[in-house]
Amino acid sequence: MNTTRRRSQRDYSLAFKLAVVDQVEKGEMTYKQAQERYGIQGRSTVLTWLRKHGQQDWSPAALLFVRKGAAMAKPDLPLTPEQRIKELEQQLDEANQKAQFFESVVDVLQKDYGCRVVKKRSGKSSRKSRSRA
């Protein structure tokens, strides 16, 4: 009589789980490759380990954030100075591109349509205020 014992998550030691999670998070292999390499039967077992023991944020809000195309980083971890500089340089580059775009739109309006676009100073409204006597 051939009886095979069905394995469960309890059969894997915590050290083994952490080692697999570490390898997957470092990018050494995908979770499917880890599953094949170590003979892990369940399709979602490694994913469960990643959620429990990994460094990534698996909360619903974080997953929604990732689906929108944002970078996957923990928002509560402080950035290193190098990361902050890179982030600020990207924001500056984007702001410069927007400024160039808006300047070209103003130029087209002035040259092609004869419209004069004037930036209003803050605190000034386009309506004249009426004093009530």
Short description:
With 133 residues, this protein is mainly α. The chain has helices spanning 14-25, 31-38, 45-53, 60-67, 81-113.
Please describe what this structure looks like:
- The protein has 133 residues and is an all-alpha fold.
- The protein folds into two domains: 10-74, no CATH class; 78-114.
- It is 53% helix and 0% strand.
- It contains five helices and no strands.
- It has helices at 14-25, 31-38, 45-53, 60-67, 81-113.
- It is elongated, with a radius of gyration of 28 Å.
- It starts with 13 loop residues before the first helix and ends in a 20-residue tail after the last helix.
- The mean pLDDT is 78.
- It comes from Marinobacter segnicrescens.
- InterPro entries: Trp_repressor/repl_initiator (IPR010921), WH-like_DNA-bd_sf (IPR036388).
- GO terms for molecular function: sequence-specific DNA binding.
- Residues 85-112 form a coiled coil.
